[in-house]
Each structure stands twice: as C-alpha cells, then as structure tokens.
Backbone:
C-alpha cells in the first residue's frame, strides 16, 4: 500500500482503513476479536485539525507524548481528556499539569513517578489509571522497570491508594521486536497470574507503526500508531 508521505485527509482515511484491517486480521490470528484491540492515534507534531479528522472518523483514543504540546492543542480537540493517554516520558514536575487532563498515564517507569502521580491525584480526590512501563532489555537509554523489578515491586506500587494499575506498556529493543514482544507478553501474563491485590491488569500496550501487527500476535491489546496513520513527521 503506497500513500503519500505527508497525506491529506483522503490518504489519512485510506491509511486508517488499512490499519483497521490489519488490526482485525492479527486479532483473529491471535484468537481475539478486532474490537478487543484498542487503537491509540499518536499525535506528536500532528496539527490538531488532522487529529480531529481521525476523531471524527471513529478513532476514539489519543496518545500524547509531550506535555506542552498537548496543553496547547487540547482546547480544540474533538474529545475530552478521558479519551487521552499520556504515553511519553513524564518528569515528576510535569505531573501537575496533566493529572486532571488525561484518562491514563502509560509511561510510569519508577516508584518516584508513581508516588508523585498518587500524591497529585489524592489532591484532586481522584484515582489515576496507569500502566507500568517495562524496560525489557535493560536499555540505559530508556526508562522503565526491569522485569524483575516489576515482579518485586508490583505489590508496593499497588498499595498506593490514588493510582490504579491497569496493565503494562513497553517499547522493545530496536531490531529485536519479535523476541521482546514475546517476552513482554509472558511477563504480562505472569503479573496477571500473580493476582496482586489492588491491580486490574487489562491492558498490554505495545506495538507502534512499524510493528503493531507483530505486537498483537504476541498479546498486545493496545497499539500506539502515529506515522502509519498521519504520515512521517517533519
């Protein structure tokens, strides 16, 4: 499927149809229904009018990477914060700016960040849904818990009263996606099977534009897609 690198609305609509078809095919191959897979449209550097175009064409969920960019575009989005997930690296001093403006924070990769989210959510009298970020290969360039840390600290994290752990997210080591997707799927299932009180592990968020089909085959039920939908970033 060849489409312009910088598509207009017609090409974006065609890309969206193709993505949905591929999600559906991979879901069926993995023994699930297409509607079991959640698509997040990743909006980094995408003009808000193009984001609104996909929202108006049935995309329900957005993935935001940058705090300030999201705050700038949020007032004109055709959706509310409950349908927005923060998926980028989040500094603790930026939590206060988005704690009441998103429905989930996916990139929680440290006890310090989890504690700050819990503290800020308590101040608002809400419970923030989060995913725990797994650094499967122990890459120094990436944040996240090691698999062992997740096993050891899940109970401690779950004891925080104003966060609710809904699952796990990961970005695999470049060039070894298939291997690490498989390992992440196994880890996610092990964490679910542990039955730690205070957890509700529904979501495995992994897979992006280049590899979301493979991720679904390895158990992902949430994929984060930007360039395959909106075109390459400038």
Residues:
């Amino acid at each position: 499927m060849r489409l312009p690198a910088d598509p207009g609305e017609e090409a974006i609509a065609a890309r969206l149809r193709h993505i949905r078809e591929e999600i559906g095919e991979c879901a069926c191959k993995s023994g699930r229904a297409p509607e079991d897979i959640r698509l997040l449209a990743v909006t980094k550097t995408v003009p808000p009018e193009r984001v609104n175009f996909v929202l108006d064409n049935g995309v329900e969920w957005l993935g935001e990477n940058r705090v300030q960019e999201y705050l700038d575009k949020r007032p004109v989005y055709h959706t509310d914060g409950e349908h927005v997930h923060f998926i980028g690296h989040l500094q603790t001093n930026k939590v206060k700016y988005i704690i009441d403006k998103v429905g989930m924070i996916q990139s929680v990769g440290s006890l310090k960040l989890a504690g700050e989210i819990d503290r800020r959510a308590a101040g608002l009298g809400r419970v923030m849904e989060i995913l725990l970020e797994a650094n499967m290969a122990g890459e120094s360039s990436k944040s996240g818990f090691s698999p062992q840390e997740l096993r050891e600290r899940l109970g401690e994290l779950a004891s925080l009263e104003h966060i609710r752990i809904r699952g796990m997210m990961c970005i695999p080591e470049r060039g070894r996606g298939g291997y690490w997707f498989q390992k992440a799927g196994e880890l996610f299932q092990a964490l679910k099977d542990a039955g730690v009180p205070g957890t509700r592990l529904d979501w495995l968020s992994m897979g992006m534009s280049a590899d979301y089909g493979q991720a679904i085959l390895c158990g992902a039920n949430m994929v984060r897609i930007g360039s395959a939908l909106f075109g390459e970033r400038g």
User: Anything to note?
Assistant: Confidence is low (pLDDT under 50) at residues 1-5.
